[in-house]
Amino acid sequence: MGKYIVRRLLLLGVVLFGVSTLIFVILRLSGDPTALFVAETATAEDVLKVRQAMGFDDPLYVQYGRFLARAAVGDFGTSFRFSQPAIGIVLQRFPATLALTVAAIGLATLAGIPLGIVAALTRGSGGDRAVMVVTFLGQAVPTFWLGIMMILFFAVELKLFPASGGGMAAQLVLPGATLGIYMLSRIARITRSSMLEVLRQDYIRTARAKGLRERAVVLRHGLKSASISIVTMIGFTFATLIGGAIVTETVFAWPGVGRLLVEAVYTRDYPVVQAAVFVTALFVATCNLLTDLLYAYLDPRIRYG
Amino acid sequence: MAAAEGASRFERGMSAGTAVSRLRRSGVVLLTAGILVAAAVAAVLAPWIAPADPDKVDIANRLRPPGWSQAGGPVRLFGTDQLGRDMLSRVIYGARVSLFVGLMSVFGAGGIGVALGVIAGFHGGRVDDVIMRVLDIQQSVPFLALAIAMVAVLGPGLQNIIIVLWIAGWTLYARIVRGETLSIREKEYVTAARALGTRNARILARHVLPNILSPILVIATFTFSHMIITEATLTFLGLGVQPPTATWGAMLSDGRNYMQVAWWLPTFPGLILVLVVVSANLLGDWIRDVLDPTLRQTL
Asked: Between vectors from CA B16 to CA B13 and to CA B17, what angle results, nearest 5°?
């Protein structure tokens, strides 16, 4: 297991090096990156000064080396808007994004697993079909529209929850639910298919034959075996939630990294854009690493394979 | 030989005859195909079928509810927006942008992804390593975050959105096409073609590409809806197609500010968007099951 962890940590380092390179390449998509660091009204003289100050007139390999050296210590420059290190601003907002994604995953797991189990146990019934339709729609409906409809129904019409803002638990309900529905759908589907697979096994038949109660058969034997694929899916989907969080935070004015990223684009605060992309990639890579490790822990064939 | 291999892949799903008969039987598939065709027709014929000019401002009649009509005037089926523009006409014109971006993105991202996937799978070795590592790195950045970062550099606008979707969207094609190519590369008929001195370009054109068309078509169907959603999302965030062009994402973004007094503003464009996306996904499911059910684990 130790070797496996070391190997995966090395891979994480490679991915982060690659992401830094990707950010460097993106910065140069427009040709001259200087334009991103000056005001739109800047004169040619101002542009020249900024170009020299930021080293954009150096050879590309020199710029690349300097960029990597700074990225390695999390230095993506100073925010134009806040006049503070960009990485610090992004990290300040990160707990809010984490709270949102954890709320979403909590809801998705608590509702998705029971739904999947019920659908598997009543395969082919009206209930099963209803679960399948709802989970299909849950995966297809765009997050931002779902969020708007949530606000329209639960905040504007029923006045049950606040429509926007961050800080209070009540303000987490609608964005958490909006972000969680996609994941709920995926969890319910994978639980259903894993349970259907497991419930066909001989040991389940044996458990039933020896007179175990159905609840024990399903939860202790069935769900336990199905949990490997469910846990893996939750881990990998958790990482992808950060993409959905960008939209959800904007719709609900939730003060997280996603909203910060969008605002940074509006205000042409490119150091913050770079730092936000790096932090989200780091989050995704870490989630994937933890999922891999958990998977290896649950399934010895992986770590010794 | 290639044809035989192509047939064998097709048989992994079902025969063409069975597929057609199942299509006829399946009301859902017909319905979803009908919805997509209707959206495409509406997009193409928008100038002729839209009841009003989508950009014509009529402040006196702003925020009129669905079904409202002025004495002697046409019925505003979807109501009017905050500037008095006809919502139905804007939704119809919005289909043009969404479907155009969806198609262009699928062709562009598909072209890049298929080319790189075939090169990686066919050549193997260092070329494969480089392409796959680039792919791994790109996939470690959330799709939307990557797209937003690129828009931040390139600027908003229809053309830039399409370019961004090309660059951000090629990875799924490349990964699956590479796997398929790796498998086909080892087939006996490819070995035989090589032994006969056939050039690589000809092997790719005659033996590899025809046999990976099914998975490409399946991925294209799924990514079509994904690209439409991404365009609408970027436009919703103010980073996509700019006003006054009528797009579903922009209508949703504008409508959000008025939803307390005009529920129809965010509702109708969103419903149509969902309808198109769900239809494309259902059709994608069906195409996958017909052409290549082995992709069920991936897509």
From this structure: 120
